[in-house]
Amino acid sequence: MDRLTVEEYKESRKTPLVVVLDHVRSLYNVGSVFRTADAFRLQGVCLCGITARPPHPEIHKTALGAEDSVDWQYFERTEDCVQYLKQNGYVVYAIEQCEGSTLLNEIEDEELRNKKLAIVLGNEVKGVQQQVVDQCDGCLEIPQYGTKHSMNVSVTAGIVIWELSKHLL
Fold first, then answer.
1. Are 118 and 91 in contact (CB under 8 A)?
2. Which of the residues 36, 92, 132, 135 has an alpha carbon 20 to 30 A from that of 83?
């Protein structure tokens, strides 16, 4: 199946994308994001605030070992994480519905080409903290056509990672 070992993964070229989890409560969502990050060979994951950190059995249950292959960092404050990423050359987008947001399907290759990106995904109930949204370079929003105006954070991560990876690979 042409799978990499953890060591080969660590040495491989990464997609220049980091996922930031802002106070995500569900350990299963955290594990799912790790697994998706591994699948797309992302640069890493940043865990912030109350977001649980590996090792943890509930994270492992959905990550299936991706918490060992994907590089991750912990920040007590999401604002410090965003500042760190921006200082290291990342363009940071909150994945949030807000005034002036860009629809994910309308982002242009030119906006992303040769850039390092980070996306901030928020708490399952409250979303991305407003002070974090204000600190980001912009907001990306997934178009939604039904009666609900939100999606599960791990589903959102998968959709956004898939779409951005098409522009970054």
1. yes
2. 36
Query: For the whole model, what pTM was predicted?
Result: 0.97
Kindly give, in sequence order, each residue whose CB lies less than 8 Å from that of residue 52, ignoring residues fewer than 6 positions away.
27, 30, 58, 59
CA gap 62, 35 in Å, rounded: 7
Report the distance separating Cα 88 and Cα 76, nearest Å. Answer: 18
Mind listing the pLDDT tens digit for each residue in 93-122? 999 999 999 999 999 888 888 899 999 999
Centroid of chain to Cα 79: 15
Q: What are phi and psi of 120, to 5 degrees?
A: -105, 120
- Nearest Cα to 72, choosing from 85, 92, 54? 54
Task: Give the helix/strand (H/E) hosting 151.
Answer: none
The letter for the amino acid at 70 is V
* 51-63 residue pLDDT tens: 999 999 999 999 9
Pick the CATH number of 6-168 from 3.30.420.40, 3.40.50.620, 3.40.1280.10, 3.40.50.1240: 3.40.1280.10
72, burial (CB in 10 Å: exposed 0-12, middle 13-18, buried 19+): buried
